[in-house]
């Protein structure tokens, strides 16, 4: 079986991260915040949190180099039930919900550009098309992902460059040198904004879902995760700076198609139409990366639980075709049953909770393997500081969310309770 090269894994990480969140979150953040320095600082905090999480997952991945992401780590280190719940959360909410969001944003940009079609129908066509691509051959799947990601980065970089050329005094526009208010940083509005930021950075762990299909994962995984997170952090800071200097704050508040609004001020109506189509194209890579990575957790579930054996069925080229189709179906269900903001908040909270528990599992891994298996194994620098930073930022976000979004938390608690009998049932032969 041909394995994914490191460049494919890097493309999966970057494409998973750079998607709906960065092109939509700012509009919601501006509903409560107006100080550009606070907003950019929150994006920096989100990047630091993602980098710390990547350091943790890199160590977990080299010690436990199999596909499945959080499902595999928690099954190995905590309890099979923890892995079972995490696997379903990752595949259904952690990937399927963002697939729906990214596809819906794709449809919204197309509609804003030139296509007079309901965004939900455009999104449906995109999801179905990419499900077909990622159930055919590994060669088509990996090559398509790399090309789409490279195109995405070229387009975004070009957009940033164009904006800076049109705003030579951008530093002065972004910053004033009055002291930053601590009250603003600790406000309820900042906490809500950080939830959106956290969602925008989700996907930094994507490479761990295809670990068992990577070339030499113990060597390449740390480089892929850290390079991907570092690159995306810089890209996000630049892109949000461009948004903030290119259009009046009032025009962006509450808007989903931020890129379209900004392009209108930079290039006029015609230019905005062109950019909207370009950004729609950019989001194809995001949806593709999630359709590629997400089903691997379901594939592992299918291999470990007899009742879900059908999810582990592989194509002749070793692709988890049933898992891909199943997750695509869940994404379509989200697409047609929930509003944009509902999906965003719910997905953000559950993914944060999933990674929070997994980073805690790192401490269990350290106790289990007090010494490296060999001298070449990667170990997180400055342990346990990166893990504590990640847990602190993510924990604060989750604690605040528990009070701000009780309905979503209640749904998650109900899923945990309902998951136990499902887990017991799944363990037995059909």
Description:
It is a single chain. This protein is mostly helical and 430 residues long. It has a single domain (6-426), classed as Amino acid/polyamine transporter I. Helices cover 76% and strands 0% of the residues. It has 18 helices and no strands. The chain has helices spanning 6-17, 20-29, 36-63, 70-77, 80-113, 119-133, 138-165, 170-174, 182-185, 188-201, 217-246, 249-252, 258-293, 295-304, 321-337, 340-368, 385-404, 406-426. The chain is globular. The mean pLDDT is 80.
Describe the sheet with the most strands. Answer: none
Q: What's the order of the H and E elements?
A: HHHHHHHHHHHHHHHHHH
Name of the CATH homologous superfamily: Amino acid/polyamine transporter I
Question: Can you count the beta strands?
Answer: 0
Residue share in helix? over 70%
Stretches with pLDDT under 50, minimum 5 residues: none
Distance between the termini: 29 Å
Mean pLDDT: 80
CATH architecture: Up-down Bundle
Summed up, the domain count is: 1
- By DSSP (H or I, 4+ residues per run), the number of helices equals 18
Radius of gyration: 21 Å
Binned strand content = under 5%
Shape: globular
**The level-1 CATH class:** Mainly Alpha
Which structural class is indicated by helix and strand composition?
mainly alpha
- By CATH, the topology is Amino acid/polyamine transporter I
């Amino acid at each position: 079986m041909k394995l994914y090269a490191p460049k494919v894994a890097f493309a999966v990480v970057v494409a998973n991260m750079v998607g709906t969140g960065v092109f939509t979150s700012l509009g919601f953040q501006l509903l409560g915040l107006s100080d550009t320095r606070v907003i950019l600082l929150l994006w920096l905090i989100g990047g630091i949190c993602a980098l710390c999480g990547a350091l943790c997952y890199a160590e977990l991945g080299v010690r436990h180099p199999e596909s499945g992401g959080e499902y595999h780590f928690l099954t190995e280190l905590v309890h099979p039930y923890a892995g079972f719940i995490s696997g379903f959360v990752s595949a259904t909410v952690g990937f399927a919900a963002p697939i729906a969001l990214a596809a819906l944003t794709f449809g919204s940009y197309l509609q804003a550009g030139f296509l007079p079609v309901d965004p939900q129908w455009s999104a449906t066509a995109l999801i179905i098309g990419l499900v077909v691509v990622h159930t055919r051959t590994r060669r088509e799947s990996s090559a398509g992902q790399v090309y789409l990601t490279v195109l995405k980065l070229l387009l975004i970089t070009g957009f940033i460059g164009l904006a800076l050329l049109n705003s030579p005094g951008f530093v002065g526009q972004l910053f004033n040198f009055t002291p930053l208010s601590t009250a603003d940083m600790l406000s309820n509005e900042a906490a809500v904004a950080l939830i959106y930021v956290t969602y925008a950075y989700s996907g930094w762990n994507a490479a761990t879902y295809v670990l068992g299909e990577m070339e030499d994962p113990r060597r390449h995984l740390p480089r892929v995760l850290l390079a991907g997170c570092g690159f995306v952090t810089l890209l996000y800071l630049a892109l949000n700076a461009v948004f903030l200097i290119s259009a009046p704050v009032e025009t962006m508040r509450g808007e989903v198609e931020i890129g379209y609004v900004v392009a209108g001020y930079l290039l006029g109506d015609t230019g905005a139409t062109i950019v909207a189509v370009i950004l729609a194209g950019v989001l194809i890579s995001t949806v593709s990366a999630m359709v590629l990575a997400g089903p691997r957790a379901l594939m592992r579930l299918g291999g470990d639980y007899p009742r879900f054996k059908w999810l582990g069925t592989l194509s002749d080229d070793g692709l988890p075709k049933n898992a891909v189709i199943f997750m695509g179906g869940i994404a379509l269900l989200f697409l047609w049953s929930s509003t944009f903001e509902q999906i965003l908040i719910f997905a953000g909270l559950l993914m944060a909770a999933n990674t929070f528990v997994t980073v805690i599992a790192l401490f269990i891994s350290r106790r289990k393997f007090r010494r490296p298996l060999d001298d070449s194994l990667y170990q997180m620098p400055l342990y346990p500081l990166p893990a504590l930073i990640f847990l602190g930022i993510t924990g604060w976000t989750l604690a605040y969310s528990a009070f701000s979004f009780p309905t979503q938390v209640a749904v998650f608690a109900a899923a945990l309770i309902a998951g136990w009998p499902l887990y017991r049932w799944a363990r037995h032969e059909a």
